[in-house]
Amino acid sequence: MLTFVGLGLWDERSVTVEGRDAVRAADRVFAEFYTSKLAGTTVADLEEHHDVDVEVRAREGVERDPGPVLDAAESGDAVFLTAGDTMIATTHVDLRLRAHERGIETSIVHGTTAAAAAASLTGLQNYRFGKATTLPFPYAHGGDDVPASVLETVDANRERGLHTLCFLDIKVGHERAETDEHMTASTAASLLTEAGRGDDLGAVVARAGSPDPVVVADRLTALAEREVGDPLHLLVLPGGLHHIERDALVELADAPPALADERLA
Q: pTM for this one?
């Protein structure tokens, strides 16, 4: 049996009760934190809280060499952990399909996601979000600017009056980075400003799921100069605003009223 468990957004306590029970009952527990991570905890804290040993797998150990995970699931109960939800953004459908090819039963225990938190914390309506995108570090895509695909996604959503959720790059063990790197919202806003989008309205969400999340909205030029503390960060680029969404950004995220009025649909 292979059970995929989403750990939620912040620390060792963010997992659901169902997920907690699955972790504690497993024969072996695997995890990956290269696509996202729990910024409020460590692997050691996870192990202590759940009284289990967690075997952290690198990207290659999941995508190219899933054998140890599948072998464990074939001979007993294995759990595979990720931050957020295991099938939303941190997608592991391929691993699940490989398990099915070997006749291994699978199940999913969902965790809350960054996408849900972004809508909830900003007050923007979930059904008014369009296609999401990821803003990479320039060195990670071989350029020195924002990829055209990112700008095209934002523009296509905006033409339809939809909001764009930008996931910000995480680099774990990259040869160009001395330590793990997490793109900040100010860096993302700076990159978009350099791409000619500085007058656009943006909404930053920092440390979603923590006891002290930060939500702030302003022009991207202003957000490029604003620090919001420790990771993880998200950036939302609103499309057309419903009047309740406008009020939410002003009251909950300190958006300049005149700027929010510009985006009223």
A: 0.89
